[in-house]
Amino acid sequence: MDTKPTILVVDDTKENINILLSLLKDYDVVVALNGEKALKMVEKYDVDLILLDIVMPQMSGYEVCEELKGKIQTKKIPILFITANTDDASIEKAFKLGGVDYVTKPFRPIELLARVKTHLELSNTLKKLEYAATRDGMTGIYNRAKFFELGQTLLRSQKNLFAVMIDIDNFKNINDSYGHPFGDKVIKKVVNTIRNNIHEDTILARLGGEEFALLIQSDVQESVMKEIDTMRHLVSQEEEIFANDVIVKFTISNGVATKNENDTLDSLMKRADEALYDAKKSGRNKVCYKNFRV
Ligand SMILES: [Mg+2]
Q: What is the pTM of this model?
């Protein structure tokens, strides 16, 4: 892991930049002399915090802040405004637009460093909390709550969406025969196999126990069918060794549903669940479909 946080300094005055570079010598600092450049820099670098001058020609710090706060990729980067104006209106505007703090010119080194350090730590803690709140602790994939949150957004934005419900077959038998720690190993192996065989923009979550779900964005039904059947096949080829000498095989059943015009996420998932039930009922280690075009 990168130990040095990256700070983006945005100021149109070279003198200020030089002072900040020397004050922030313990950090990785990248520099932009105007707002447009700053917006490019955040795409290029993994920026942890931004020091942003308010008064700049063309694009003001306020405008840069507004743009960054409006984008999902950058809205969480803490922004500290650099300002000589500490009147109520300027400060109020800075906070209103999403700035977390401000530092005043001329710079007071101890104060500036303390504010930077505090906000880096705070943002780091928030990142960790958010990660923990949205992930399944055992596998690191999304949890149920995050799945439904991301799913709502996808449902609104994506015309062609496929929901998949996945369940490890006879999982209770695996747990009963070999114990829960072994069952956990099987879950991790299944998740890894699924994760390695889905597209980057497919959402994968553990809904609970041995049950998982996918949301796949695709315009081509046939390729989705192929993808899921390949995944099913690859899982069936996996194995886990119990007590050094028992080879344990396992399989998954899959239910797939296509999004209809009037679907809510619940109704879409419900059909995928019905398809999963069909897969279970008709022998497991299968993929079944609801409302597919034929
Ligand atoms: Mg300026």
A: 0.77
